[in-house]
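It would be a great kindness if you could assist me with a short task in structural biology. A protein sequence and the structure tokens that stand for its backbone fold form the material at issue. I should value your view on which stretches of the chain appear to form regular backbone elements. The record follows directly beneath this note.
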Amino acid sequence: MKKIKRLAFAVIALVMSAFVFTGCEKTSSQIETEAVAAIREANIESVRQFTEANFAALLVQAKYEDFATFKQMNQVLISFTFDNDFGARWKYFTERHGACVNAVVDETMRKGYEYTSRIIMTGEDNRQMALTISYDQGGQPYKTTIAEYEDDSQQTFGQKMAAAGGNTIIGILVVFSVLILLSLIIYCFKFVNQASLPPSKKTKEAPAPVKAAPAPAPVKAETADEAAAEDDPALIAVIAAAIAAAEDRPAEGFVVRSVRRLKTNKWR
């Protein structure tokens, strides 16, 4: 675009003249940096003005049908390639939101050697979309993109609170999910440590249990009465006589060696 080039030369001349007349002690690199920055700002402003005058105004003042008729007559706005791209974006917008009732250049910036200028389009249903036009380093538009757009300033207080509440809930869920995941990872560390330890030595076999020797049969202790009976000759003689009478045998035929009291009262 010739306007951009003319404006760039004018800015350079203005910067150089200011340096000469003010007598500021600036290095050549500083002068060059300031001149380049001034040129970029001037180019950005020129692109913004061109977008507003040639595209934003056209979107409001005309309808897509008029632009389609304009193309069918082999008329060219910028170039056949750009016009087809621009017309496709315009048609996409009108099919969803009706005619464009308002179009405002929102922002214009430089990216590398290219420029982009965004137009906020408002349809008949009061919905908005953002149409971005890209310019090459010579200031010539060559492509467009379009995307949904929602201006937060147009939202009601209830809509803003609903959006904030949704974001808060999502944030809380994400935080707790991460905490649970960290807890599981920390819990699994003990299994990792156990797996990394060397195998423990085998425990020595325990000696076989020693069988206890059988206890000797209990010996019945003689009671004092039994001991007294064995020592009493008169009692022995009486018992021997009773046995001899019961067996009908002479007393000399057997000898009483011991006398023990039975636990039962029955006679055998």
Notes: The helical segments are 2-22, 28-61, 64-72, 80-97, 157-196, 224-231, 233-247.
